[in-house]
User: Which sequence fits this backbone?
């Protein structure tokens, strides 16, 4: 069964810092991985979907990488801003139950201080 | 596109009452997912549909929960009878099959 872990659980940084959020997964027989953002009391917003063939995907100040061999993905946020404060979740498919079924990590709660 | 639409946004009910949550997926998406999020258990998949057919309902907690998708643009999640431990935020999501899921704003359910 796929298991997804995110480290750290919480992160507090001053505005302007570059930061890395980590995600690890146990079953590497996946062909993509998705990163989401969740603001308090809101739904999940899709940030990036990385295909295993791409290894990296970029959107604005966000860059996500995927290394299937090591079972890891990272989300890099450049020049962080207070508006980036949110919980970031990664989700990987569970190959054993069909690739449509996503398994979510518990998230990294990010606070960017002005 | 308006995105995934869920109603109601908030629901407060008393134990034993029937609760129906509604979802309209993004037009053209052929997968629909129902999730539940709590502080204790995080985000859990309850059931998902493909082309209106339930594919995996192994996450449905018990017989009190049921879900239907009568057509490509509408799905319901019903809890009957509701219990206080069902209090959570329920999300609906849809995808076009490339595995990128788009979530609705959620329904916050409180069962007293």
Assistant:
């Amino acid at each position: 069964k796929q298991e997804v872990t995110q480290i750290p659980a919480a992160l507090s940084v001053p505005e302007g810092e570059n930061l890395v959020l980590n995600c690890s997964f146990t079953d590497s027989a996946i062909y993509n991985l998705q990163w989401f953002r969740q603001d308090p009391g809101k739904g999940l917003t899709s940030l990036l979907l990385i295909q295993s063939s791409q290894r990296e995907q970029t959107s604005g100040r966000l860059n996500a990488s995927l290394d299937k061999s090591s079972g890891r993905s990272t989300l890099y946020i450049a020049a962080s801003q207070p508006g980036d404060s949110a919980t970031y979740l990664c989700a990987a498919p569970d190959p054993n139950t069909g690739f449509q079924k996503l398994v979510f990590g518990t998230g990294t709660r990010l606070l960017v201080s002005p | 596109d308006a995105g995934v639409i869920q109603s109601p946004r908030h629901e407060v009910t008393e134990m034993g009452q029937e609760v129906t949550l509604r979802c309209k997926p993004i037009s053209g998406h052929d997968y629909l997912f129902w999730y539940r999020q709590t502080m204790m258990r995080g985000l859990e998949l309850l059931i998902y549909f493909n082309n209106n057919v339930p594919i995996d309902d192994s996450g449905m907690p018990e017989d009190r929960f049921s879900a239907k998708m009568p057509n490509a643009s509408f799905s319901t999640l019903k809890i009957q009878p509701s219990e206080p431990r069902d209090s959570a935020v329920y999300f609906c999501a849809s995808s076009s099959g490339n595995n990128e899921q788009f979530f609705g704003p959620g329904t916050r359910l409180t069962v007293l």
About this structure: Chain B touches chain A through 24 residues (CB under 8 Å).
